[in-house]
Amino acid sequence: MRRWAKLGAAALLSGAASPGFAHHSVAGSYDSSHEATIEGRVVEFEFVNPHPILTIEAAVRGGEPRLWRLEMENRAVLGRGGIDAHTFNPEDYVVARGRGGRLSAHIMYVLQIDRPADGFRYEQDGTAAHVTFGKHD
């Protein structure tokens, strides 16, 4: 029985250490005192649990374009706000504002995304997502 207990414990520990399955706190991963705005073209939108990811190619302050990983609120909240797997498409031009990563460059927790071509705006407000269309200041 001891052998099975050791194997079970090892399996649990290896799964817990896997970043693919780990959930994290937004405050622990992103710096609320460091907000940035980036703009660029959508490369991919992954409408996955627990947090959808929007990957864009963007440059900051005249630098070379780089891939940015933009993490959004959880999928259920986005769905209630009107976002689905087809909201963002490759080559869409977007402007995103959010909190920068604490330990990694080129990642952001999204607070707002604008798509100027059609007036789309996504805003994260606590645990609510709001989508509007039209002119924005």
Describe the strand arrangement of the main beta sheet, using strand numbers: 1-2-3-5-4
Q: What portion of residues belong to β-strands?
A: 35-45%
Shape: globular
In total, how many domains does the architecture comprise? Answer: 1
- Please name the fourth-level CATH homologous superfamily: Nucleic acid-binding proteins
Give the beta-strand count: 7
Q: Main beta sheet, described?
A: 5 strands, mixed, barrel
Instruction: Tell me the CATH architecture.
Output: Beta Barrel
Radius of gyration from the alpha-carbon trace, in angstroms: 18 Å
**Order of SSEs, N→C?**
HHEEEHEEEE
Average of per-residue pLDDT values:
80
**Category by helix and strand content:** alpha+beta
CATH class: Mainly Beta
CATH topology: OB fold (Dihydrolipoamide Acetyltransferase, E2P)
Give the termini separation: 66 Å
Structure description:
By secondary structure, this protein is an alpha+beta fold. 19% of the residues lie in helices and 44% in strands. The chain has one domain (24-133): Nucleic acid-binding proteins (OB fold (Dihydrolipoamide Acetyltransferase, E2P)), CATH 2.40.50. The chain has a five-stranded mixed beta barrel. A hairpin with a 6-residue loop joins β1 and β2 (53-59).
Task: Summarize the entry for a quick read.
Helix content is 19%, strand content 44%.
